[in-house]
Specification:
Blueprint: E1 2-6, H1 11-22, E2 26-31, E3 43-47, H2 53-60, E4 65-68, H3 80-95, E5 99-105, H4 118-127, H5 129-143, E6 148-154, E7 156-158, E8 167-170, E9 179-181, H6 182-195, E10 203-206
Parallel strand pairs: 1-2, 1-4, 2-3, 4-5, 5-6, 6-10, 7-9
Antiparallel strand pairs: 8-10
Helix pairs in contact: 1-6, 2-3, 3-5
Bound molecules: NADP nicotinamide-adenine-dinucleotide phosphate (NAP).
Length: about 210
């Protein structure tokens, strides 16, 4: 498949690129610093910012599916995810591309989680109010589209080796689950793509 990737220079994004290329996909990645991505057979890198609607439209135009692992990198770009989400939906809708798989954050929805501790529900959304609001807005923008989207709600990200032994539950993390390796998030996203699974759903991942 021809895949368009946002956030390919990031810690999840690098795993997405590696797995996608290994599986034989053709990948086009948008990067603010194209030189941050190593040259690889099957990979095309275009320079640009995810908040630039034209750059995102050009990225997705010739793709069969779009994967996003964007992250705000210390909130340097306020409302990055919502802005990029709007650009992605607009670009895909215009080009007739339907499949979109994005990294989202389980923590942004913790207040409605039936299995989270009360104290965590109070503290986490307060500490991370701005990034969580951005995540929720991104999800709203995408859910309002008629695309075949999947919002992968990751729990706390760690850099351990992938195990593929994670649990998945719709909307909220499996009870007692609170972390997931970035490499396993990437594997799950590529699995959603190949199996056409979790369409218009919010799978939450944890060990
Ligand atoms: N931290 C956690 O525990 C946690 C938990 C659940 C979910 N999440 C979610 O996971 C995601 C982050 O995953 P990660 O650790 O892989 O992130 P990361 O390593 O910080 O990577 C972020 C990626 O986004 C790119 N990016 C940022 N601003 C951009 C812009 N304006 N235009 C184009 N690209 C831009 C970065 O590119 P550059 O290389 O140019 O900076 C980088 O490729 C976030 O969406 C976050 O909400 C995090």
């Amino acid at each position: 498949m021809r895949l368009a990737v946002l956030g390919g220079s990031g810690r999840i994004g690098q795993h997405i690129l590696a797995s996608a290329l290994e599986s034989g996909h053709q990948v086009c990645a948008l990067a603010r610093r194209p030189e941050a991505l190593p040259a690889a057979s099957g990979l095309t890198v275009i320079g640009g910012d995810a908040t630039d609607g034209r750059a995102v439209a050009d990225l997705v135009a010739d793709s069969d599916a779009v994967l996003s692992a964007l992250g705000p990198r210390g909130a340097k770009t306020p409302a990055l995810l919502a802005s990029a989400g709007r650009n992605t939906v607009a670009g895909m809708s215009k080009a007739g591309v339907r499949r979109l798989i994005c990294v989202s954050a389980a923590g942004a929805f913790i207040r409605a989680d039936p299995d989270s501790a009360v104290l965590v529900k109070l503290i986490l959304p307060t500490v991370l109010a701005k990034p969580f609001a951005d995540v929720r807005e991104m999800e709203e923008v995408v859910a309002d589209s008629d695309l075949d989207w999947t919002m992968v709600r990751a729990t706390r990200l760690v850099n351990t080796r992938p195990t593929s032994q994670y649990r998945v539950r719709p909307d909220y993390p499996p009870p007692g689950g609170w972390k997931i390796a970035r490499a396993d998030v990437a594997r799950f996203m590529l699995g959603c793509l190949s199996e056409r699974s979790w369409v218009r759903e919010h799978p939450a991942l944890a060990y």
